[in-house]
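Changelog note: in this version the structure field was regenerated for every chain. One regenerated record is shown below for reference.
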Amino acid sequence: MKAELQQRLRNEILETEPGKAILTCIQCGTCSGCCPLADAMDEGPRTVFALIRDGFIQQALAANTAWFCVSCYQCMVQCPQQIPITDIMYKLKEMSISYGLLSRNNKLADLYAAFHRQVMLFGKVSEAYLMADYGLRHPLDLMANTAAAVKLLVKKRLHLVPRKVAGIDILRHMLTMGTGKQKEPGQ
């Protein structure tokens, strides 16, 4: 990645409301210490923040950190600087998708994108459609979950026909506020 693109992406993060807080990170490690999935992450949040601050945006976006964030907000509760870490993780996911900086086999990113498409289509997640959408990219995972899907169907816990929520246009507008467009992950 060219230096000018890295600088532009760095500025894009740091100019957002949550991203500005990266500059206040004191590198205490509290976020990583309280994260339930820190062991699965390539880098802890504080390391990602240091990479961003120092201009190594490609490495920050390539790390799986944002994709393992489960939005439990424990890091935000514990952060002595009150950095909106979870919000920053959402921004990093969005940027990774928007700029095509994902590895080809990033299953979490594919699941995230499929989830987003379901919410934009129906206003909620349709499990059957979600697994079909995700399964097109990861057929082995789809096959591995087929037995569970059949059991759910038998118990009438899996609905094959999705239903839209009332006021879907209002929800779509809320989800795209500030972007000016209804951009779908991967576009």
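Spot check on this record: The chain has 13 helices and no strands. The chain has two domains: 3-98, 107-175.
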